[in-house]
Amino acid sequence: MARRRGFGEVERRVSRSGQVTHRARYAMPDGTRYSRTLATKMDAEGWLAAEHALVDRDTWTPPRAREEAQARRQREAAFNTVGGYADRYLAERALRPNTLTGYRQLLDSRLLPTFREVPLVDVTLADIKSWRGSLDPKTDATNAAAYRLLRSLLQAAEEDELIDRAPPKIRGASTPGSSEWRGRRPLTSWPSSSTTCLSG
């Protein structure tokens, strides 16, 4: 039997195998009905409450349309992660082979272990500072090159209108031997193409 509420109703259902589920359903003013079957009564009531809130805020759209929009946003977010965008960034630029190799080494060794799956829109100044703090201070030249590459990626993403604004520049982060790095030994075995990557 369905239990009626102020908005919609929840019906307890038992399958032939004895599995208990709860179907929440409601009707809109035009008579169209919407439902969802969930494992527990609490989940069903929670779904109804969320749908009711959308109606009250006048932001309701059909559940299927919302699910499709959410799936589309997830696909776009996956496409526009730092790792995904970095691949396109390198592919779309006419780079010399040595330069391309250097950038790829910086990505694989410094940037992508931290940022590969992070959506571009979610990268913050705090994230960048935390990442820099995790790097070996003895490799200041490579660290600076990696920071310049990350900053260039984010500036390009801003130009492509994938993010509203790139995080602010960190003073001294792009220059090995600055006051921040003074007295620290740079990595001498890193390819020269990677230590000279991208100004800014």
TrEMBL record:
The keyword NADP does not apply. This is Core-binding (CB) domain-containing protein. PROSITE patterns: CB. Keywords: DNA-binding. Pfam families: Integrase_N_phage (PF26003). Residues 80-158 form the Core-binding (CB) domain. It comes from Nocardioides endophyticus. The keyword Calcium does not apply. InterPro entries: CB, DNA_brk_join_enz, Integrase_recombinase_N, Phage_L5_Integrase_N. Residues 189-200 have a biased composition (Polar residues). It comes from the Bacteria. Residues 164-200 are annotated as: Disordered.
